[in-house]
Amino acid sequence: MIKLGIIGTNWITKMFVEAALATNEYVLTTVYSRSLDSGEKFLADLRIEDASVVTTLSDLYADIDVVYIASPNALHFEQSKAAIEADVHVIVEKPTTSNPVEFAEIEQLLAQHADVRYFEAARHIHQPNFKIIAQTIGELSEIQGATLVYQKYSSRFDAYLAGKEPNVLTREFSAGALYDLGIYPIYAAIALFGAPQAVQYLPILLANGADARGTANLFYDKYNVTVIFGKNANSYLPSEFYGLKETISTSNIAELEHVTYYDGEGQTENIGETPYDNPMIREAQDFANVINDPVGNHVIYNQWFQLAKQVNQTLFDLRSSAGIEFPADQKE
């Protein structure tokens, strides 16, 4: 069994732990929390009695195989570095780091710890329905781009309107719409079409300089991909991929609840599978496969790592095009 440690006690951490346990590949051994009470409540909610709570990273990394990091974005870099230096595998929530300079340092550190594996938890690209979309796009005679949408009113936006500064809506924590929600469609676009030749981001900014919503354009040789996302409004538009007459549609590029194929001649086919209730099970299993057999899964691991690197660079290029700077950039 893979000994799992976690950083963060929020809803997404709970979802990942439940997914990891459902694979029967992991055992949760250690929870890191700044508050002992918060960590103990987290374990109680999961009804897990044989795990410990620690309040220092050194204690967390002392006896685990892999850490799942779901802290605020700006903390991912230092916490990942500490794990790699302790020869602990890393599963880090999106985005891996704040900018390409930090990512390059992670890459250099991994070269010094060759047995450590570093995963970005982009759960949707591991879903069967995403793979069905990829296969169907590959069968099109011509690709004419896509329109990808992920816009959801943030549970923290009311707090922002009340005058507070939630982490997910501040540049100080390397957050905002692009890095918290836009990363889902950006990941999908690059996984399916490769890195764009050029990018443009048109954001709607909050008073604190963070982006609340925006439209990103990814430019390819023969087509463009338009990406719409945001945290201050809801959208119910589907995401679509375009052939000539054909269109592939999914309800939500992050959740991939269903996939529909339109042949352009009046015929429609549901080509998707019914997803798991917990959308993180597939990625947890994929990561376990690599950890348990790194040699046999070396090729797919490298593909995921290079994809994460391309996404990181594209996110940086997008916000640079809009003049959005993070405090983390000043360390460059």
TrEMBL record:
For this protein, what is any one GO molecular function term? Answer: nucleotide binding
**Per the database record, which ranges form the Gfo/Idh/MocA-like oxidoreductase N-terminal domain?**
2-114
Q: Which domain of life is it from?
A: Bacteria
**Database matches in Pfam families:** GFO_IDH_MocA (PF01408)
Q: Give the matching InterPro entries.
A: Gfo/Idh/MocA-like_OxRdtase_N, NAD(P)-bd_dom_sf
Tell me the protein's name. Answer: Predicted dehydrogenase
Origin species: Leuconostoc citreum (strain KM20)
